[in-house]
Amino acid sequence: MDSALPPRPNLAENSESIGPAIYALASRLFPICRSITGNGVRETINILREHIDLELHQVATGTQVFDWVIPPEWNIRDAYIKDAAGRKIVDFARSNLHVMSYSRNVRQVMPLSELKSHIYTLPAQPDLIPYKTAYYIDDWAFCLSHSQLLELQDGDYEVVIDSTKSDGHLSYGEYLHRGTSGREVLLSAHICHPSLANDNCSGLAVLTSLAQLLRGRKTRYSYRFLFAPGTIGSLTWLSRNEDRLGNIDHGLVVSCVGDEGGPIYKKSRRGNAIIDRLMARISCNETPMTVQNFSPYGYDERQFCSPGFNMSVGLLQRSAFGTFAEYHTSADNLDFIRPEHLASSFRMLTDVIDALEGNWTPLNLSPKGEPQLGKRGLFSPVGGHKTNSTKTMAYLWVLNLADGNHSLLDIAERADMVFSEIAEAAGRLRDAGLLADISPAEN
């Protein structure tokens, strides 16, 4: 089976130069006020459509999706708090985190004692604005830094949230890169968060750039990219696509991939799916992947992995959600993510695709003893070393396990090596005439 993607050096060159472009796209998405519905989601999708042929799907308010109902569409034009002197002390125009998402329309004058019951802060992080949501209740609130709350003086305040909840649509975007086999890989990022750079402008920008890379490339798998609001969006997509879920062999939810942490992979509910095994064989700038067992708390992997679907979908992150101090605060800004980290996350995903596309089953054509690698330029002409190099060990492991019963992923696991090291060694051995590819023929 020939590898459908270009050789690894070409992908590496792409990943090293693409960081600033991914960062620029994330920066463009960052100011937009997104929620689970509304104009911000559509504006974001339209920006992504400038890069890939993304299809916009609209599902009406009131539509039943399993145990859920799509809520009214929420849009906000303005919001502020003015003190008794008429000065805006809180302004939605400065940070869209200042308003709790899905806050109802408010125009009132109230004393500070009443206003405080509608204010959220982070006392342990007094200089940061928290991110709060109220998707399925009729309420309103502002989010402030705790330091600012402590500065408020007794008196009356004018409170305005110019928002609407009305019949409309839930919107999501979908792009399909078609492969030759009809089998699919699902790649998903949530599109519902406002100005939070790592969670998840980073995921949106990295996956869009990956879709651009695949465009025009011949691949075995089809790659389905989904940009949907968290929870209700993935449930909506699942409810509208139940008949095609059997075509999806592997999947990843991608979020928080712009910071310097990790990498971290959370397994699918199955725990032993091909994607789970493969992700344990991927590294990030030579840092091994930290693999965590499945938990039903997290992002949309918990919907894809619910017992009624049990899809082979895991979660890829750098720093895990909820564990970094910037999570769901105003500190998750464009200074928190960096082009080099976005580029290395992009490279991880190209490595995943390389592995999915290039996991073949080798057969050793010279199985009686070790073939002489030196005369083929695959082994050092000088012997006597105390240890063998990683490259040499990869050759030896591949040759020893290439009995027709082990895929490259099987060999990488047995050798406890990165998949790319085994794949590169197998490719050179095949080119040297020492291996044959006996992978089952595909329909």
Please explain how this structure is put together:
This protein is of the alpha/beta class. It contains twelve helices and 20 strands. An eight-stranded mixed β-sheet has the order 1-10-12-11-13-18-14-17, with helices on both faces. It has a four-stranded antiparallel β-sheet with strand order 5-4-9-6. A two-stranded antiparallel ribbon has the order 2-3. Helix 5 packs across helix 9 (339-357). The protein starts with 7 loop residues before the first helix and ends in a 6-residue tail after the last strand. Mean pLDDT is 93; it is low at 1-15 and 382-387.
Helix content: 25-40%
Beta-strand level of the residues, as a percent range?
Answer: 15-25%
**Total number of beta strands:** 20
Q: In one word, what is the shape? A: elongated
Which structural class is indicated by helix and strand composition? alpha/beta
Radius of gyration, Cα only, in angstroms? Answer: 25 Å
- Compute the average pLDDT: 93
Walk across the major sheet and give the strand order: 1-10-12-11-13-18-14-17
Give the distance, in angstroms, between the N- and C-terminal Cα atoms: 13 Å
Low-pLDDT runs of 5+ residues are: 1-15, 382-387
Biggest sheet statistics? 8 strands, mixed
Q: Figure out the total of helices.
A: 12
Can you give me a brief rundown of this structure?
This protein has 443 residues and is an alpha/beta fold. It is built from 12 helices and 20 strands. Helix 10 packs across helix 12.
